[in-house]
Amino acid sequence: RLVNGTTCSGRVEIRHGDTWGRLCRSHWNLQAAGVLCRQLNCGYAKSIQTGDRFVDGNGPVWRDAFHCEGTESCLWDCTQVTLGNPTCSAREAATVVCSGNPGLAESLRLSDGESRCDGRVEISLHGMWGRVLDDDWNIKDAHVVCRQLQCGIAKKAYYLPRSERGIGLVGLRSVQCYGNETQLVLCKTSHSQAPPTGVAEDVGVICSGELQCKRNKMLSRSRQIRLLNGTKRCAGRVEIYHDGIWGTICDDNWDLSDANVVCKQLGCGYAIKAFVSAHYGEGSGQIWLDDVNCTGTESGLWACPSRAWGQHNCQHKEDAGVLCS
């Protein structure tokens, strides 16, 4: 939450249990502030240099710090680090001034779908709604649309059947996104109104749904890890709890360094073996992580480099497992 300011500016506080506390300004940056502004539906972060505005009074100071890339939807999707003592004083607390209501989401919409989070992609440029046409529309492009609309992650990128294609103004053509952009217009695009060569078609997306960022969710409970199907507590298929769902990890690049982080995190000593190819049986449903590449020193598996949550090219026959000491 933001206190001592307006709806979209103030001192940053997070809740542990029933107690709200501040964060240290020295470990607060614009990337984390930007994620928080987006999470609170307050646009983007304009400034974190606010002097002594917002910071009067006393109160607990938490030892949490957030390392964000800036594209996350919620603060607890960022890597969370616990700082050593001593923490800063209550007057050295993190603050932010956000831009206010997003506007970003208002320049993009999905039409003719079942909800606001699926349908044909339309963009507003210069006050006019136009179609988005592409001959190479893919999941990376769709992820950017879902992120901009605060609709979770993309489940599907598709072309509209001929009968449902739009007519009229074209807003964007030939969109090429890396997948980590915060809005569609930041991707490489063609704005030209000239007829394209080849056939470009109207595009659509299905997103996972409106983001349920539980503002007061206890951070430490938002992600968990477990081992299943092993013969003892410290062996099994690795599963992670994220966004309210248990899911598996793909075995691409899975090795002892990754397994070590899991064992340490579960209080299971060190890794004796990193198993691949669903050694402990195939999971079902969500595959959360792929191309995990830990050094072995991380405090949790989600602090390791990997593909984005839910992005993978795997099947459950590639579920990763560990045997700990």
Short recap of the structure:
With 325 residues, this protein is mostly beta strands. It has helices at 30-39, 139-148, 256-265; strands spanning 2-6, 9-16, 19-22, 45-47, 64-67, 79-82, 95-98, 108-111, 118-125, 128-134, 154-159, 170-176, 188-190, 201-207, 224-229, 235-242, 245-249, 271-275, 287-289, 321-324.
Write a structural description:
By secondary structure, this protein is mainly β. It folds into 3 domains: 2-98, Mac-2 Binding Protein (Roll); 107-207, Mac-2 Binding Protein; 224-324, Mac-2 Binding Protein. The protein is built from 3 helices and 20 strands. It has helices at residues 30-39, 139-148, 256-265, and strands spanning 2-6, 9-16, 19-22, 45-47, 64-67, 79-82, 95-98, 108-111, 118-125, 128-134, 154-159, 170-176, 188-190, 201-207, 224-229, 235-242, 245-249, 271-275, 287-289, 321-324. The strands form 4 sheets. Strands 8, 9, 10, 11, 12, 13 and 14 form a 7-stranded mixed β-sheet that branches. Strands 15, 16, 17, 18, 19 and 20 form a 6-stranded mixed β-sheet that branches. Strands 1, 2, 3, 4 and 7 form a 5-stranded antiparallel β-sheet that branches. The longest helix has 10 residues, at 30-39. The chain is flat and about 65 Å long. Mean pLDDT is 84; it is low at 214-221.
